């Protein structure tokens, strides 16, 4: 499982907008073009909403997407 401790630390103390519960580090599955990636991101323990920060989406995730698309 890929962990992003700097992202977890940055969102510590945030709450879920939908249910008001605190976000905690949690497992999430990201899928793209048939590939599945287990990651740890800030996640609502009640509704399961996950934060995917812009820097992750436009950084590491974009790099992985481009590698998969080039195959």
Give an account of the 3D structure.
It is a single chain. A hairpin with a 2-residue loop joins β2 and β3. The longest helix has 11 residues, at 60-70. The protein is 30% helix and 31% strand. The chain has one domain: Ubiquitin-like (UB roll). It has three helices and three strands, in the order βαββαα. It is an alpha+beta fold. A three-stranded mixed beta sheet has the order 1-3-2. It has helices at 5-10, 54-57, 60-70, and strands at 2-3, 23-32, 35-44. It comes from Oceanidesulfovibrio indonesiensis. Residues 13-71 form the DUF7479 domain. One of its GO terms (molecular function) is DNA binding. Keywords: DNA-binding.
Uncertain spans = none
Strand order of the largest sheet: 1-3-2
Strand % is: 25-35%
- The secondary-structure element order is EHEEHH
Tell me the span between the first and last alpha carbons: 23 Å
For the record, the count of structural domains works out to: 1
Question: What would you say about this model in short?
Answer:
With 71 residues, this protein is α+β, with helices and mostly antiparallel strands. 30% of the residues lie in helices and 31% in strands.
């Amino acid at each position: 499982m890929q962990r992003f401790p700097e992202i977890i630390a940055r969102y510590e103390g945030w709450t879920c907008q939908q249910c008001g519960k605190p976000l905690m580090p949690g497992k999430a599955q990201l899928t793209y073009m048939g590939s599945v990636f287990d990651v740890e991101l800030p996640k609502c323990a009640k509704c399961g909403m996950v934060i995917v920060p812009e820097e992750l989406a436009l950084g590491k995730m974009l790099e992985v997407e481009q590698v998969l698309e080039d195959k």
